[in-house]
Every structure is written in C-alpha cells, then in structure tokens.
Design goal:
The complex is a heterodimer. Chain A is of the alpha/beta class. Chain A has nine helices and 24 strands. Chain B has a single domain, classed as Alpha-Beta Plaits (2-Layer Sandwich), CATH 3.30.70.20. Chain B is globular, with a radius of gyration of 15 Å. Classes of the chains: A alpha/beta, B alpha+beta.
C-alpha cells in the first residue's frame, strides 16, 4: 500500500470539498491538495440530479465546475475511493478503491484534513426495500439508474414531501404518467414553509397532476416474481400501483469515517453531525468539517445546528479552507434558507417559518391571493421570511435579517410595493451601494 | 475591474437606466419593439426611490460574491482576470437561490422563457454599459478599480 503525503486532504468532492479547495487556493498556491470521493464522477451539482432525471439539464450541465478544475487548482483528485480508518494521532487516512478501482489502496498522510462527507439517506426498515425500482434520490448514480428505468415507469410514488421529495415529484411528473407524493405531516415542505405557503405549493403540484396524500405513509412494498416493485401499501390500508418508489424522508449526517476517531460528534437527539467551532474546526486540531455532515452557526437562532443546504456547505467549506491555509475567518452565513420553484411557482424562505408563541414576536403578512409574503419580527429585527408566488428582492430582507437591522422606522413599509433601499437606515443604505468585500 | 456607481445627488428617479437596461437585454434591442412587441426582460438595475431621494442600484460585482457561493448549479463565477461576477446563463436552472442570497436585491427572476435569474453583466457587447451611457444626468459613472488578488477561481 503506497503512502502519499498532502498538506491538505479533503474528503468529499461536492459543495463543501470544492469550497474548501477554492478557499485554500485564495491563500496558498503551493501547498499540495488531494480530494477524495467514493463517487467516481467529476464534481457535480447534487441539487440538479432531479433536473437530469427530467431532462432539462444534461450530463454536462451537471458539472459544478469546469472539467479542468482539478488541474487549474492543482488538486489531485482521487475519485472512486472511499476513505476509512482515520488515525488522528498519525494524521492519516486509508482510501480504498470502489467500483472500477476495487483493490487499490493508499495510505494518505495529511497536514490538515477537511471532512465534507455529506449525508446518507434515512430509510425506514421495511420489507421490499431490495426490490428493483425502490430507491433514494440523493446522488448521480441513483438519478442515472432511475433515468434508465423511466421508459417502463407508469406509476411513481414518492415518500416524503421535503425538499428532495418535492423536487423528485416535480421532475417525475414531467416524464411519468402518474405521480403520487405521500407525506406523514399534514402539509408538504413543512420545515421550509408556513401553512399558507405550503398550501399554495401543494396547489401547484395538484394543478400539475401530482397527487398529494397527507397524514399518511407507506408501510409495505410489494413486488413481482422478477423482483420488481409493483405496488405500495399505505398506513390507512390503501394500495397504490407503483413501478418506481422513491424514498425521500430525510438525510442524516454521514459521519462513519469519524466514529471512534476522537472527533466529537453531536448527540443523536439533535440529529448527530460533527461538532465544529465558527472556524469550522472540529474538536481535534487540524481537522475541519462542513456541510451536511457537520453543524454550523445559525445566524437567526445564534446556535449551532445541522443545516443541510448547498450554500451552507460551500461557504462553510470555503471558510474552512481559508482557516486551514492560515487566514482566520468565521462562518456566520447560514440559517434555514430555502429557495425552490415548482411548475413556475417560486418560493423562498429563511429563518423562522412560524411565529414563536413568545413575547416580542410579531408577524407582518401580505396576501395577494396568487402571491403571499410574511415577515416574522422579534423586537423589530427580522427573524423569519417567506415569499411565495413572488420572490423579487428577497435578498434585501435576508440582508436585514443577517445584519440584525432594527426595522422600527420602516416596519409598515416593509412588504409594500413602495419599500426600497432608501428606507434603510443610513449606514445600511451606504453599505448596500458597496461591493461585499469580506467573507464571514 | 469596471464598477458602476451612482450619484444620489443628481439622480432624479426618471428610471431611464431601467428602460435602457431592458432594451439592451431584449431580443430586438429596439426600444419600441422591446416594449410593444416583446415581453420585456426584467431590468437588471433598480431605481431605489422614496420621495426626493433616489439612486440606481445594480450588481456590485462583489469581491466576495455570495450569489456565486450559493449557486446550486455552479452558474455564477468570478472572472479571474477582470474580477467581474459572471453568470453562465446556460447553466442557470432558475432556482432563485441567488435571488435570496444577494443581499442587495440585485438579481431578479427572468420569466420570459425557461426560468433564469438575471443580473447586471456590465453589457459585454458595449464599450460603456447602457445605463451609464443613457443616464441624462450623469448620475451613473464607471470606475476602474483594482481587483483583490485572486488565484484560479
Ligand atoms: C435531490 C436533491 C435536491 C437538493 N436541492 C437543494 C436545493 O435546492 N438547495 C439547497 O440548498 N440544497 C439542496 N440539496 C442539498 C444539497 O445538495 C446538500 O446540502 C449539499 O450537497 C451538501 O454538500 P456537502 O459537500 O456537504 O456533501 P455532499 O454533497 O453530500 O457530498 C459529500 C460527498 O462525499 C462523499 N463521501 C462521503 N463519505 C465518504 C468517504 N468515507 N469516503 C469518500 N467519499 C465520501 C459522498 O459520496 C459525496 O460524494 C438537495 C439535495 C438533493 C439530494
Ligand atoms: S449579484 Fe449581488 S452578491 Fe452577487 S456579485 Fe452582484 S451584488 Fe454581489
Ligand atoms: S437561479 Fe440560476 S444563477 Fe441563481 S442560484 Fe439558481 S441556478 Fe444559480
């Protein structure tokens, strides 16, 4: 087994990993970097796998960075290698070839390590999970597999109506006869919407032929003699014909590499994940983590939590990279922020979705029927934003939220058409005219 | 790099910059046809106005572009040579993440065809960007600024 030494070793070839490499190269053009992923592909945009399925993005459109990325950033890519056996004292990781590279092993020694291993799908125990046509939807291989199958699919069922489930259902509805989305909660997109906006989104699905079943779940999967899924059974006893069953009820931090390594992990109660400080460094000096596998600072709540979203992974990675290369930075750019468009119905949200039942909180709402906006304030500071059906200039509110700007003077204008940057307090107004020059 | 700034004192809020931005990014690039025959594109510059105070605002081409850091498709990047923040319209899938994360409100949805986000591109086909050239009051001007040193990005 060959041993190689790198100044920087990055596990994960996605948002977090790429952000880290780009962050390092802002500061250090000489240090050696290796990037490992058990996926064999050039870095791709994970959120676009459902677009690939639908066909509005082609394979080339999946590339997150140009094909010469690794060369231009002097990064040695080790794609198709799984990292195991982290030795924090010896500062080394073993990597083992997967698929085509099975049998190849390397021992990698590192100066600094980034863990950006992302998430693993949560799959409830159920008979029939091994049947053909039953799959999660979190990586390119799964998308390509389902794509190959599409010609044979007449009835698709998606379990879970969170971000991944809804996106999958939307994509499938363009290419499959009948699509049904089954959700345990009483509304779709619950973590990223309120009741009104969730209903509007559900209307967009129903209006485009997707059946939405709420307060229900799948309890059984049936297959035929060829081992292919044929129907699913719901909790209420009803049966849906099904030749594609996508399980999308959630993603858990993928931290197997760190089990027993000494790197502190958060408890299962809060969903697990690698604990980090604002520099994205873990409890072990020289080891950093970011993205779906790790915690991050939430600028709305002020606490550390899981925020499995692309911008958080990229920016967290970039900031980790800056720190790893010796340029101190904090990551304070994350919160529960989401942005989607279903069938031409756009919706963005950030921070609190529902007004906490506590003193000091209030809500400003504007409902125009086909579009709807809501702001949640705590002592005149924006803590929550929802814009559904119209998302223009949402970023201005996010900026106020992030800057903890008191909106007292223009609270009544906030959601009116007349609201502009001129209403902002002078310092904020002057700031908005300037380019952003710091990352934090 | 080129950056456009506004002079608040002389902006009269006439919004001609918005109009000419729309024409420049329209299919015909003809002012009458843009508004009479086409669905006009959204302006990539916005006149912020309240009473007598107004100024125009468009993408600041940030040194630290959060739009680019947030884009889920890798469709926005900073040009190494010029520092300009460029959007690859082919790659954009219209997810509106950048609309939410540009805290200057400088990116808007363009709903004319397939969903795409639109922001100031400094008018690559012109010597001087349309908004700057067409402002009757010289309330917009261009500055050549040094870019923060970048390594391949
Ligand atoms: C269908 C879908 C749609 C989404 N849509 C959106 C959206 O619209 N907006 C948004 O903000 N977010 C969205 N997300 C979430 C977003 O994709 C994630 O937050 C983001 O990918 C996290 O990036 P990451 O770098 O932390 O990890 P990941 O993207 O998960 O990448 C981690 C990589 O590390 C590899 N890896 C893990 N362990 C090992 C190991 N031991 N050895 C080697 N390699 C390893 C994995 O195989 C993977 O390639 C979506 C996700 C999905 C699946
Ligand atoms: S779009 Fe917004 S965040 Fe992006 S460079 Fe322009 S002003 Fe900065
Ligand atoms: S709307 Fe387009 S440019 Fe903006 S984040 Fe989404 S894909 Fe990127």
């Amino acid at each position: 087994m060959a041993t190689k030494k790198f100044d920087y070793l990055i596990i994960g070839n996605s948002a977090g990993g790429i952000g880290c490499a780009e962050g390092i190269r802002r500061v250090d053009t000489k240090g050696t970097i290796a990037m490992v992923s058990d996926e064999p592909y050039h870095t791709y945009s994970r959120p676009l796998i459902t677009h690939l399925l639908e066909g509005d993005v082609d394979r080339k459109g999946m590339d997150f960075r140009p094909r010469d990325f690794y060369r231009r950033h002097a990064v040695e890519p080790l794609l198709g290698f799984r990292a195991e056996d982290l030795n924090t004292d010896g500062r080394s990781v073993k990597v083992i070839g997967t698929n085509g590279k099975a049998g190849t092993r390397h021992n990698l020694r590192y100066g600094k390590l980034l863990v950006a291993t992302g998430g693993a799908p949560f799959i409830p125990a159920m008979d029939g999970l091994g049947l053909g046509g039953v799959t999660p939807m979190i990586n390119l291989a799964q998308s390509l597999d389902v794509k190959k199958r599409l010609a044979r699919v007449r009835n698709a069922v998606v379990l879970g109506a969170g971000l991944i489930g809804t996106k999958t259902a939307e994509a499938l509805s363009q290419v499959v006869n009948r699509v049904t989305m089954v959700e345990l909660a009483d509304r779709i997109l619950a973590p990223v919407s309120d009741i009104r906006s969730s209903r509007m989104a559900a209307d967009a699905f129903r209006g485009n032929g997707v059946e939405v079943i709420l307060n229900n779940t799948v309890t059984g999967i049936q297959g035929d003699e060829k081992g292919q899924v044929t129907e699913v059974v719901l909790r209420d006893g009803s049966v849906l014909p099904c030749d594609l069953f996508v399980v999308a009820i959630g993603v858990r931090p993928r931290t197997d590499l760190l089990e027993g390594s000494g790197v502190e992990l958060a408890s299962a109660k809060v969903g697990g994940g690698v604990e980090v400080d604002l520099n994205m460094e873990t409890s072990v000096e020289g080891i950093y983590a970011c993205g779906d596998c790790a915690h991050a600072h939430d600028f709305v709540t002020g606490g550390m939590r899981l925020l499995p979203l692309w911008p958080n992974a990229y920016i967290g990675g970039r900031i980790a990279g800056l720190n790893m290369a010796g340029s101190p930075h904090h990551h304070r750019w994350a919160t529960n922020m989401n942005s989607v468009d279903f069938f031409g119905f756009p919706m963005v949200s950030a921070g609190f979705m529902l007004k906490p039942d506590r003193k000091g909180f209030e809500e400003i709402v504007r409902d125009e029927g086909h579009w709807y906006a809501k702001i949640i304030l705590q002592n005149d500071v924006i803590k929550g934003l929802i814009m559904a059906g119209r998302v223009e200039r949402a970023g201005i509110y996010l900026g106020l939220m992030r800057g903890r700007t008191k909106v007292t003077a223009f609270k009544r204008e906030l959601l009116t058409d007349a609201f502009t940057a001129v209403h902002l307090p002078d310092e904020v107004k002057e700031e908005i005219k300037k380019p952003i020059t710091v990352i934090e | 790099m080129k950056r456009i700034y506004a002079r608040e004192e002389v902006c009269i809020g006439c919004r001609l910059c918005e109009i000419h931005c729309q024409v420049e990014h329209s299919r015909t690039r003809n002012i009458i046809k843009t508004f009479k025959e086409e669905v006009p594109p959204p302006p990539r510059i916005n006149v912020e106005e309240e009473g007598p105070v107004s100024f125009a605002l468009q993408c600041r081409h940030c040194d630290e572009p959060y739009c680019a850091y947030s884009c889920i498709a890798g469709a926005i990047y900073q040009d190494e040579q010029t520092g300009e923040v460029i959007q690859d319209i082919e790659k954009c899938i219209g997810c509106w993440t950048c609309v939410l994360t540009c805290t200057k409100g400088a990116i808007r949805p363009d709903l004319r065809g397939p969903r795409k986000a639109a922001k100031c591109d400094l008018c690559p086909d012109r010597e001087i960007p349309a908004c700057v050239e067409m402002c009757p009051n010289d309330a917009l001007y261009i500055v050549e600024e040094e870019i923060k040193e970048t390594v391949p990005g």
